[in-house]
Amino acid sequence: MSPYPAVPIGAPVLHLALAALLLVVGLRYLKRAVEPIRPVVGAIASAAVVAFALGASLALIVAAAFAR
Question: Are 34 and 41 in contact (CB under 8 A)?
């Protein structure tokens, strides 16, 4: 006798379909939730790009100075 309950034949497909539906609904509501803070996220991403570019350029300048 199996310790696990019997699973109907179509149950895994039903579970996957329900999971996909809930994932779509969750992502749509997440998009609505993030909408008001989109400018803040964009500003943070821009600041990160600027910081990376400045740091990389500084590292290249230092490397070029010590290469001579």
Answer: yes
Average pLDDT over residues 16-32: 91
d(CA 57, CA 28): 40
- SS3 of the chain: CCCCCCCCCCHHHHHHHHHHHHHHHHHHHHHHHHHHHHHHHHHHHHHHHHHHHHHHHHHHHHHHHHHC
Rg (CA), the chain: 26
**Between residues 1 and 62, the one the model is more confident about:** 62
Dig out the tokens for 11 from the structure: 């149950």
Q: How far is CA 36 from CA 9, 30, 46, in A?
A: 44, 11, 17
Nearest to 33 by CA among 41, 22, 45: 41
